[in-house]
Design the sequence.
């Protein structure tokens, strides 16, 4: 018999109750009390359900109204000066989303997941001041339900390494705040506390490993404190493991899905080992052979069966998916089913065997070679006749209530296919006419037919299954339903051709064909286990190549194939990165490499520290790359001096409701033109516009066009 726990749990609500509460509050439709009550209700539902499933050690402080890193910044008082005069809740959401006058903090990907976190800003004079209300009050809420929970906190080392500038030299100051928090938790009656340190599962310097060891020597030395477990996940702790094991902490949580059992278990002797044998990153059932791993660990310490990481990365409950094929359902486990597996393993109950179809045999894969970029650029300039600093958007336009009702009506059978087509065509016409009236140069059709940039393709490709309620939080109130790749991927028929052709028929300006790239489609899906990820990406690339060929034959002059997940899938260990980038780039080039020289290929990457892999982005061989830049402070532009193709550093943040002025956009465009020249600089938003309103979009794009025209006059 072992203990049982999870490192975290989904928090958006099985029916997206928190999403709805947040958006109602932000729009002014409900008051603050309603939002806070929705949070309490969701926490209560979660704790009671985990107890009902038999979990012996449920966590607390895993709930968030936006992001756990932002919560930690508030916890330790790391609030930038510009937000400090606001009401605390207003400041919290302003840091995440901005407001009418204040720009938000940067947002980027949480390690190699599709979850986005808010990047802390720490000036040298930013004081650390403890604000312990959240972890304490949530622990008390659970206690009042009769539950003894384990508060989960982002560890001090990972917090500083994730902050802007990675100011690890401020660790001693931060540890003082964490030590005070441990004292308060102990005084309240907390018995265990969890510190998440996923940064330690990546490549770390000797100085950083030493800092981690010293940090937990300090926290472990606090006189009156709860017992401490440090959780390192998303890979193996490697050199960090013995360093942490030498400190007084009582527990270590190991990711035994993304990493192997340590060859030497002796450093773990006498520790409580949280054995992460049930995956928190996929939807597949657990192999019963993991029971042998638990038995091995029990030889050196007390064992608690656990998820490999937080279950926030998987949907809530497989029982909410009655439409899935029964054979596929038998292979799946969502969050509730994973908790049941954890409880069964902790009680010594054997898991049923996992049965899957025989794997495919991948075929050879060689990307074509396009003409050199200068040759293509000349052919495209002759065909497109674009002005200096061309203006465009990234792809999506606002998803109106009418569009959502049309999709829901078609799915429910209340709306005929013909009536649906007419509704979507009307939405496309609106988007095209708005862009023409504003004066944009390269248009998009607005993507009203797409519920999601990955799910839409999954619904039209063989080998995918989609869910009805398989929601996973991406950031804040934004949720996706990751498709499930369970068999070979093929394209039975064209996917986007009719919609793009209709949009192009409405205007003489070029309309971009809009596709999601092969890496992103796979990265934002739950991927079959019986093939290497590379082989699955190559299957998707073949399907997209057929779609690109159809668009070219239909006369498309510009085709955008987005790869926002290229940086996301980058392995955390440097030794594995070159091999990944090589095959990821090959897949993109295969999908896009067969077009004539006068067809312009665009790609888009956002919110993922793309500046780290600009050399690989250039190897994609796209003619124009648009990237997020406004929210990240133009770091991409400053790193792009050697980039030799067209580049559009985003000039305003689409995740914020604020509309940037002409002067603000002009200043950003001026930087881009100074670094790239008017022939290679593009003007565009940071990302797609589906989450904004038409009023916001028209105002912001109008200012973007005005700024671009002003820049052109200065160039001439």
Sequence:
């Amino acid at each position: 018999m072992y203990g049982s726990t999870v490192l975290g749990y989904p928090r958006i609500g099985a029916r997206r109750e928190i999403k709805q509460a947040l958006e109602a509050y932000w729009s002014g439709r409900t008051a603050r009390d309603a939002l806070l009550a929705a949070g309490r209700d969701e926490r209560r539902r979660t704790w009671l359900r985990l107890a009902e499933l038999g979990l012996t050690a449920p966590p607390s402080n895993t709930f968030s109204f936006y992001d756990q890193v932002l919560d930690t910044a508030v916890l330790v008082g790391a609030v930038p000066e510009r937000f400090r005069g606001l009401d605390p809740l207003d400041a919290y959401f302003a840091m995440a989303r901005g407001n009418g006058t204040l720009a938000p903090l940067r947002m980027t990907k949480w390690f190699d997941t599709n979850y986005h976190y808010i990047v802390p800003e720490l000036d040298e004079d930013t004081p650390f001041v403890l604000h312990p209300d959240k972890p304490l009050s949530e622990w008390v809420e659970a206690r009042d339900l009769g539950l003894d929970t384990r508060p989960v906190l982002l560890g001090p080392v990972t917090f500083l390494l994730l902050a802007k500038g990675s100011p690890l030299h401020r660790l001693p100051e931060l540890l003082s705040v964490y030590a005070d928090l441990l004292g308060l938790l102990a005084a309240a009656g907390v018995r265990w506390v969890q510190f998440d340190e996923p940064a330690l599962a990546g490549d770390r310097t000797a100085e950083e490993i030493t800092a981690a060891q010293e940090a937990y020597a300090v926290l472990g030395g606090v006189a009156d404190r709860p017992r401490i477990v440090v959780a390192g996940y998303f890979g193996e702790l490697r050199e960090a493991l013995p360093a942490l094991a030498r400190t007084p902490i009582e527990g270590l949580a190991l990711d035994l899905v993304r990493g192997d059992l340590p060859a030497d278990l002796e450093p773990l002797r006498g520790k409580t080992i949280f054995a992460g044998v049930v995956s928190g990153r996929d939807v597949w059932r657990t192999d019963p052979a993991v029971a042998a791993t638990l038995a091995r660990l029990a030889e050196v310490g007390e064992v608690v069966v656990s998820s490999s990481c937080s279950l926030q990365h998987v949907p809530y409950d497989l029982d909410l998916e009655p439409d899935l094929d029964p054979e596929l359902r038998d292979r799946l486990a969502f969050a509730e089913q994973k908790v049941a597996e954890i409880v069964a393993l902790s009680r010594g109950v054997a898991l049923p065997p996992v049965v899957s179809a025989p794997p495919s045999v991948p075929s050879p894969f060689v990307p074509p070679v396009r003409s050199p970029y200068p040759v293509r650029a000349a052919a495209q300039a002759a065909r497109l006749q674009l002005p200096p600093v061309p203006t465009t958007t990234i792809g999506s336009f606002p998803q109106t209530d009418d569009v959502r009702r049309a999709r829901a009506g078609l799915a429910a059978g209340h709306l005929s296919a013909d009536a649906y087509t007419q509704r979507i065509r009307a939405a496309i016409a609106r988007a095209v006419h708005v862009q023409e009236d504003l004066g944009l140069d390269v248009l998009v059709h607005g993507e009203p037919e797409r519920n999601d940039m990955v799910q839409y393709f999954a619904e039209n490709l063989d080998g995918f299954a989609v869910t009805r309620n398989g929601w996973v939080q991406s950031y804040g109130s934004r949720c996706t339903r990751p498709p499930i790749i369970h068999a070979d991927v093929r394209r039975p028929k064209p996917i986007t051709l009719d919609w793009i052709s209709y949009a192009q028929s409405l205007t003489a300006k070029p309309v971009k064909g809009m596709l999601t790239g092969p890496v992103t489609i796979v990265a934002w899906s739950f991927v079959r286990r019986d093939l290497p990820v590379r082989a699955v990406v190559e299957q998707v690339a073949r399907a997209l190549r057929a779609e690109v060929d159809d668009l070219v034959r239909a006369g498309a002059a510009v085709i955008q194939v987005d790869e926002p997940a290229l940086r996301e899938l980058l392995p955390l260990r440097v030794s594995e990165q070159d091999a990944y980038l090589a095959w990821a780039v090959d897949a993109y080039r295969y999908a896009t490499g067969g077009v004539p020289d006068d067809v312009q290929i665009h790609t888009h990457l956002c919110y993922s520290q793309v500046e780290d892999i600009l050399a690989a982005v250039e190897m994609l061989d796209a003619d124009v790359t648009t990237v997020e830049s406004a929210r990240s402070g133009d770091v991409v532009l400053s790193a792009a001096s050697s980039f030799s193709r067209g580049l559009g550093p985003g000039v305003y943040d689409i995740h914020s409701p604020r509309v940037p002025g002409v002067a603000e956009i002009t200043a950003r465009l001026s930087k881009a033109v100074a670094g790239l020249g008017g022939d290679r600089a593009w003007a565009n938003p940071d990302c797609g516009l589906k989450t904004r309103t038409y009023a916001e979009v028209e105002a912001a794009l109008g200012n973007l066009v005005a700024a671009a025209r002003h820049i052109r006059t200065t160039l001439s």
Observations:
- Residues 32-53 form the longest helix (22 residues).
- The radius of gyration is 25 Å.
- Residues 3-346 form a domain with the TIM Barrel fold (CATH 3.20.20.210).
- The CA atoms of residues 22 and 571 lie 33 Å apart.
